[in-house]
Amino acid sequence: MAKKDLLPLLFITLAIAIFPVLAGGSEYFISLLVFLGINGITAMGLSLLMGYAGQISLGHAAFYGIGAYASGILTTKYSLHPLGAFFIGIFLSAFIAFLVGKPTLRLKGHYMAVATLGFGEILFIVFNELSPLTGGPSGLSGIPSLTIFGHPVEGAKYLYLVWGLVILLLLFSLNLINSRVGRALRAVHGSELAANAMGVDASRYKVQVFVLSAIYASMAGSLYAHFVTFISPSSFGLMFSILLLMMVVVGGTSTIWGSLLGAAVLTLLPEYLRAFEDFDVLAYGIILLVVLFVMPQGILQGVRRFFEGKG
Amino acid sequence: MAKKSFIVVLVVALLILGSFPQAFGAEKGPYSVGAVFSVTGGASFLGEPERNTVKMIEEWVNAAGGIKGHPLKVIVEDTKSDEGQAVLSVRKLLEKDKVIAIIGPSTTGESMAVVPIMEKEKTPLISCAAALSIVTPKDEEERILSAKTFEMPRKQNKWIFKSPQTDTSAVETIYDHMKKKGISRVAIITVTVGFGDFGRKELKRVAPVYGISIVADERYGPKDSDMTVQLTKIKGTNAQAVVNWSVGPPQVIITKNWKQLDMKIPLYQSHGFGSKRNIELAGGAAEGVLCPLGRLVVAEKIKADHPQKAVIMKYKTEYEKRFKTDVSTFGGHAWDALYMVIDALKGAGPHKAKIRDYLETKIRNWPGTGGIFNISPEDHTGLKKDAFEMIFVKNGDWAFAD
Amino acid sequence: MTFSSQLIQFFFTGLTLGSIYALVALGFTMIYNSTGIINLAQGEFVMLGGLIIVFCTMVLKIPLLMAFVLTVTVVTLVGALFERLAIHPLKNASVITLIIITLAGSILFRGLAMFLWGKDPYALPPFSGGKPWHFLGASLQLQIFWILAVTVVVVFGIAFFFNHTLVGKAMTACAFNPLAARLVGIDVRKMVLFSFALSATLGAIAGALITPITLMEYERGPLLTLKGFAAAVLGGLGSGAGSIVAGFIIGILESLGAGLISSGYKDAIALLVLLVILWVKPSGLFGSAEASELKKF
Q1: What is the complex's ipTM, to 2 decimals?
Q2: Please, which residues have CB within 8 angstroms of residue A266's CB and are 6 or more apart in sequence?
Q3: In the 3-class helix/strand/coil scheme, how is chain A assigned residue by residue?
Q4: Which of A151, A177, B253, C273 is the least buried, fewest Cβ under 10 Å from its Cβ?
């Protein structure tokens, strides 16, 4: 992790620590930040895949769903401890990502996009059809809260749990980017041919990042399931995959921080658009197009350029 | 690079702080009731009429001087048909607006997500979604689902009620009619989303009670444009009737496909079919289609001395006059829910626990748009199959089936 | 109903679905050929075609043929406008950005449709009245034949256009090598505009044809986009003929899958086939492996 990232990291840690006090114990704001953190985790994983390795995934909601359903099913139907279910979800996601990733990541650009799209859709159908296990379209209810040493984690404690993980993963990701692996990834992004010529096994690295991003998504999914206590396939469909993609793009694909920013914007934006009601779909599309036009490399780069232009 | 990361944190902080004013706009109104509807998103056909209805009622109540002098304030939040948003909306209503009770959400999924919160915060919720699981604790639900004989639950969630009829009642009405007609072999075709899935489960669970056997079980997606394949398969069985369970365009497409395939067996639709628009869109193919409907849809045809007549006529005429569109049964659920809360406020005052008790014990022989309610500790819905009439389409209009 | 009649029924349903997917796929291929962009708003052109023709015939009371022409013209203009405003200014952006832009475009179109027409579905009377045609136990709506007939005409028209007209040949040249095309004096920018407009035309035709059977509402787009895209890739992105054939293959596979295997999993069947093709032979059935290597994406 580079020195330059240390300060903002500390700042976030501090901010989250005092947030519940700032918010006056408001469950509403705590919930909002929890959702933000959860989306941030998935976005970070996707950012590693898209921004650094230069690959695309239009089906990431599937891994999010696998984590959520693993946690949901194992803790309700099989009374497994949430932590156990959490890790099984990770394992399952990683395994499926590996199986799917190997043939898919050989493909280029749009082909990969379609393949991941198709994969995401297939998983959505599976969630819907395996009724006895997943509850089908009617969903799975009564998912228990996470417990640590017997104590349920709720409210502000859940906020700390989620953001604790966010910060941990942020540290991990930043370290990864600045390590030999990270440089190899960026080499692959720049040119696979060149990377291969330099002895970097491009396809191996690509699959590894894909699996890693799936693990991030799975963790986020599990956290989501225990927070909302009810999940149904509609939360894990194409729309969510697209939302995730947009978080990374809008925030800026070139940095991990960008993905967090994108997650923040796209999680908090609907709260602003509450006033627009029927027009919010329209407003959403317009805002996205405007961002893409004015700051095609994401908000982060756009603001940075703005500040640097002044100085 | 440090600057870049700082910018991130700054922007995020600004965004979060920026949402504060939004939330702190709450005034200290007298009687505040929250409403959580899917005004936009996939379930907006539920949420929009619900929102319109509560706004209309709010105006009337305040124009007549409020509830014992206190103005009524109905705060509507849009969940965009998303469970996460439903959770956020409910929290906002409870914390910022300090509502006494909440009406909605519009869908089962969203309702399930907010039930634990309402129970924890000890605030009454009247959901506008139909599933039994909303008002029934999970262990009780599992007990009746795995019971040897058909049963309805006897324990209900303390703070949770719902105004729509349970889908089970619609299924029972259909099966009653089939039994009368001597039909015992039925094919079912349902949509793979919540409403359809629940209908499918109930159709299968209730069938044995009526000696009916399900000979085909087909499904389709909510955005599918053609169901001739599934209906063709059904045509190849010895089914004596086919039941479709869905809302929205698929109902019409199935009706047209049924006609196109020249199927000789009767088509029963769910109570989601209750809109004249569906008959129009089917372009004549709907003749003879049967469905159970709440009396609101056929308000004009109900006898003048029926206890529901006044309510449904008033709602229908006022809604259609004001919003220039057909009244919908979904909006009716919001009507029933809000008026129950209003009655509770009149009778018990602005105390959450007292309102809850009132709802559980005083809503008896209560005529609403959905039926005549009889809420009890064992039944937080209050409606049974007599809330429905068996209707069929005749000459492009509704008629009572015999 | 005998099994063979069922099969015939499934087959014709498959053909109906197939022609819509084929038209959408053709639209994808055309845009991809001249720009390398995948237009994820393709399904929305179909949706607009359906809704606008309903508006013309039911509200403005314009006779069917004229309404058809008017609808197609309007949607073509929409496609051209979309290219000018959203694609052209950003043509140097990355693959991902371009994909997102067309996604944003599709959201915008849906928002607009919802604003103009609400969320209700709309119906159109079939182009020719009359009872379904019974054939060996299967029952086929006459509209199916309209769809097939128009699709065939469109396919021949497109083939003729690309092979025998100057503009068409110019577009094909751009597909092979934009630099060389520019060197021989072809205005590549105009070709891009053209391809978007033409794709919108195809989408609109599909929309107008299918509405009498399936109704149309503002959210129909995304599923059609997905399946049409699958067909385009199956046929080999870049091969017009491939798109058409693949569209029909997917339509029939879906129909047979629903009929013979499981109606719940039918979409998964078509998608699984797509994934297998991508993994085994990404250039599709009719694309050549070398040609797809040469392409930018």
Answers
A1: 0.79
A2: A39, A243, A246, A247, A250
A3: CCHHHHHHHHHHHHHHHHHHHHCCCCHHHHHHHHHHHHHHHHHHHHHHHHHHCCCCCCCCHHHHHHHHHHHHHHHHCCCCCHHHHHHHHHHHHHHHHHHHHHHHCCCCHHHHHHHHHHHHHHHHHHHHHCHHHHCHHHCEECCCCCEECCEECCCHHHHHHHHHHHHHHHHHHHHHHCCHHHHHHHHHHHCHHHHHHCCCCHHHHHHHHHHHHHHHHHHHHHHHHHHHCEECHHHHCHHHHHHHHHHHHHHCCCCHHHHHHHHHHHHHHHHHHHHHHHHHHHHHHHHHHHHHHHCCCCHHHHHHHHHHHHC
A4: A151
Report how far residue C242's alpha carbon sits from residue C250's, in angstroms, rounded to the nearest whole number: 12
Number of compact structural domains in chain A:
1
In angstroms, what CA-CA distances link B152 with A164, A308, B133, B144, B169?
45, 68, 11, 7, 11
Query: Directed axis angle between helix A202-228 and helix A82-104, to 10°?
Result: 150
How far, in whole angstroms, is CA C175 from its chain's centroid?
Answer: 19
Query: C95 and A272 in contact (C-beta within 8 Å)?
Result: no
Q: How far, CA to CA in Å, does B155 sit from each of B182, B379, C95?
A: 35, 8, 57
Confidence at residue B74, expressed as pLDDT on a 0 to 100 scale:
94
Tell me the average pLDDT across B277-292: 90
pTM confidence score: 0.83
C212: Cβ contacts below 8 Å, ≥ 6 apart: C123, C124, C125, C126, C127, C143
Residue B1 forms contact with A (CB below 8 Å): yes
pLDDT of C226: 82
d(C-alpha C120, C-alpha C49), whole Å: 16
Chain C residues inside the 8 Å CB shell of B251: none
Whether residue A99 lies inside any domain: the answer is: yes
CB B230 within 8 A of CB B244: no
Q: What is the pLDDT of residues C217-246, one digit of tens each?
A: 888 888 888 888 888 888 887 777 888 899
Neighbours of C73 (CB within 10 A): 13
Round the average pLDDT of chain C to a whole number and report it: 83
Q: Which of A259, A227, A300 is nearest to A40 (CA)?
A: A259
Is residue A296 situated within a structural domain? no
Question: Whose structure tokens read 């349970």?
Answer: B166
Q: Quick check: is A292 in a domain?
A: no
For residue A183, the enclosing domain spans 3-235
| Chain B, chain C: beta-carbon pairs less than 8 Å apart | 83
- Put simply, the answer to whether B196 touches A128 (Cβ < 8 Å) is no
pLDDT above 70 covers a percentage of chain B that reads 93
DSSP 8-class letter at C11: H
- Residue pair B140/B371 in contact by the 8 Å Cβ criterion: no
Residues contacting residue C61 through CB under 8 Å, at least 6 positions apart: none
A87: exposed, middle or buried (C-beta count within 10 Å: 0-12, 13-18, 19+)?
middle
Q: In chain B, what are the domains?
A: 30-165+329-384 (3.40.50.2300), 167-300+387-400 (3.40.50.2300)
Cβ separation C272–A129 shorter than 8 A? no
Mean pLDDT (whole number) for A50-69 = 89
If we measure between CA atoms, which residue out of B163, B202, B219 comes closest to residue B332? B163
At B245, give phi and psi (nearest 5°): -125, 100
Give the Cα separation of B391 and B384 in Å (integer): 17
DSSP H or E run through B125: strand B125-127
Nearest to C256 by CA among C11, C20, C2, C1: C11
Q: Please say whether the beta carbons of C82 and C105 come within 8 A.
A: yes
B64 touching chain A per CB within 8 A: no
Q: A284 in a domain, yes or no?
A: no
How many beta-carbon pairs below 8 A join chains A and C?
116
CB contact under 8 A, B233 and C259: yes
Phi first, then psi, for residue B375 (nearest 5°) are -85, 140
